[in-house]
Amino acid sequence: MNIKTIKEKTPKSLRSLAGFSFVNWIKLLISNRGVDPNYIFVAIMTSLFSFLFIPIRLYEKLFYQKQLEQLTIEYPPIFIVGHWRSGTTYLHNIIIQDKNLGYVSIAQVSAPGMFLSLGNKKIWKITVDILMPQTRPMDNIHFSSDLPQEEEFAMGNLSPYSFYHGFSFPKNIKEYFKKYILFDGLSEEIKSKWKNVYLNILKKATFEFNGKRLVLKNPPNTGRIEILLQMFPDAKFIHIYRNPYIVYSSTKHLYKKLLPTLTFQNLNEEETEAVIIEFYHQMMQKFFNDKNLIPPNNFIEIKYEDFVDNEIIELKRIYEYFNLPGFDEYEENFKKYIESQKHYIKNQYSLNEETINNVYNAWKFTIDKWQYSPPK
């Protein structure tokens, strides 16, 4: 059986849950009242794989937890924030060409509870590359185990405190958004647990990259400025924004392509459109309210349309503003990566008049602020 056949025969939802914590998985099944009938087989397979990995996760706790507790994150992270489909991935993939920086990788988020204990990480990375698609389903961007990934997936694999559980259990997606992006009505105890899990993930990445400064791209963090500053008061924040009309269409496409690879419950298209409108509004409003908490010298904003085709100029502006080392040393790396993406074809979207009006009425606070028009 060749790699292509293995990919085709692997249940899509299993690809993202290969390293799931068994206890966490059972808690999620109970709290979300199980899965829809058409996902029972995938749920059984997920349970089996998760159960089989218990010894490795226990080994990691036994032999690495003490080292992680003693590890100090010396350099405050650089957080790239912005709503999904705003250009965060492209910006992140360019910046990590700077070898002074570390990140949370796809290989790590696939098995965050046992990644450090896998004796031969090359074998695990090959396994991840086999199970994962070669390109992201929503935009055909190259996908491999060594590339950076949103640490939100690791949060979901390790704990119940992740918004991305809303993708697996979309019937409760609003509740996950309210709790784990807005932190609305969440007790101090749960907030503390969230911080501990998140810090553990970042410590593992720091350990893997020998203490380098981490640069992190995680759209849910756009609504978490306050709690991130509690953890890292001197963290740097890069906010990238894009035409909201394009963001709406692209996010709708994201849900259409991504949910089938993660979900265990059904969500119809009308419900999907409603949550996209609602989540953008609530998250961006919270971001605007909280971004003033960031010291001015630690915050910079980038307009996506200005960044594309001017990447080096904008990147140099970031490095100079934050007084980061390494730009001159790795400028050629940045240019090579940018050149490698020149032939990438973006998804094209068209919006009817009704959709344009709906988006404007809901999101005019960003559309007017940033002076965007509907795409032609």
Task: Tag the structure with descriptive keywords.
Rossmann fold, 376 residues, 5 strands, five-stranded parallel β-sheet, 19 helices, disordered N terminus, single chain, mainly alpha
Q: What's the Cα radius of gyration?
A: 20 Å
**Percentage of β-strand residues:** 5-15%
Total number of beta strands: 5
Question: What name is given to the CATH topology?
Answer: Rossmann fold
Q: Summarize model confidence as the mean pLDDT.
A: 87
Strand order of the largest sheet: 2-3-1-4-5
Amino-to-carboxy terminus distance: 47 Å
**Largest β-sheet summary:** 5 strands, parallel
CATH class wording: Alpha Beta
Which overall shape is indicated by the principal axes computed on the Cα atoms?
globular
Number of domains: 1
Question: Can you count the helices?
Answer: 19
CATH architecture: 3-Layer(aba) Sandwich
CATH superfamily: P-loop containing nucleotide triphosphate hydrolases
Low-confidence stretches: 1-15
Helix amount, in percent? 55-70%
Written account of the structure:
With 376 residues, this protein is mostly helical. The protein has one domain (3-345): 3-Layer(aba) Sandwich (Rossmann fold). It is 56% helix and 6% strand. The chain contains 19 helices and five strands. The protein has helices spanning 3-9, 12-15, 22-31, 40-52, 54-70, 88-95, 106-110, 121-131, 151-158, 165-168, 173-180, 188-208, 225-231, 244-262, 269-290, 304-307, 311-322, 327-340, 353-370; strands at 78-81, 101-102, 213-217, 236-241, 299-303. A five-stranded parallel beta sheet has the order 2-3-1-4-5. Residues 1-15 have low confidence and may be disordered.
